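Weekend entry, working from home. Most of the wet-lab plans are on hold until the incubator is repaired, so I used the time to fold the two sequences that have been sitting in the queue since the last round of cloning. Logging both here for the record. First:
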Amino acid sequence: MRPVGVRDAGEIERAVTAFAREPNGGLIVPASPLSIVQRDLIITLAARHRLPAVYSLRFFVTSGGLISYGPDTIEPYRRAAGYVDRILKGEKPADLPVQAPTKYELVINHKTARALGLDVPSTLLARANEVIE
């Protein structure tokens, strides 16, 4: 694994193209403001170069990416209501514990997997929270 820092679309394109030249390559795309803004470019480049890519947010997969595994993005908002209630009842925000995500979701775009020539094991498909056909 080799992390690559990128700052714009041109650097993303150069980095993905460089990864595509190496055998048995793939991408792990963390959530960041740049990756979110440039998600269509990243997904297009991964498909063009036939690189499997794993993302941390499900909307990358609904936009055509291969797989995402990351925290449920709705759950923190639901849990925030409990914090608001506690604060309104007088607790100090500084005294409330920091909460880590408790629910993670696996989303697989089976159509993209087939386009990349990948056979996704049925056991993995069965474990997915959502499979996009």
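Second, folded right after the first finished:
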Amino acid sequence: MAKVKIGIIIGTTRATRFGDKPARWIKDIASQRDDLTVEVLDLRDYPMPFFDEVASNAWVPSQNEVAQRWQKKVAEFDGYIFVTAEYNRSMPAVLKNALDYAYPEWNRKPAAYVGYGSVGAARSIEHLRLSCVELQMAPMRHGVHIQGADFMAVWQQGKDIKELSYLEQNSKTMLDELHWWASALMVARRSAG
């Protein structure tokens, strides 16, 4: 099977965010595979204003230079892992904004999810999956949810996520599925021209 390039997107930008930890954790696991190359994309490096373009870049080129840089970066990947928190039962606004600033760059590529928080960002990921469908992405069924006592132990008590060894099976299943879909869709995109 082909080696695919996966972007791991940290979906929060707050100074006190937790997202760096699960992003590093999933990157370390994914980097051990010989069928994936991974890169972490930090939304802090792409400080886009709230979406204020004439239209989606599917119809009109974006004017904002940071948005253009973001679109170019997003286009480099064959699939994505979104690392997200849950804010008021949905995804963080900065992540939704980043999704909205690109359109053709996301099309026909798979999306996987690593969530964290009291319910493992399950409701956030549910909304994120719906947005991904609208962006013509293929959302993965399997994901990783760092929730409840596990989240609190890592966030407040200094436990290493690696100690939650049972999460590794979920991550393996998710990465296997992500690789399969990324490979299949990469071939399909190339054959479609």
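Plan for Monday: verify the second prediction. The chain has six helices and six strands.
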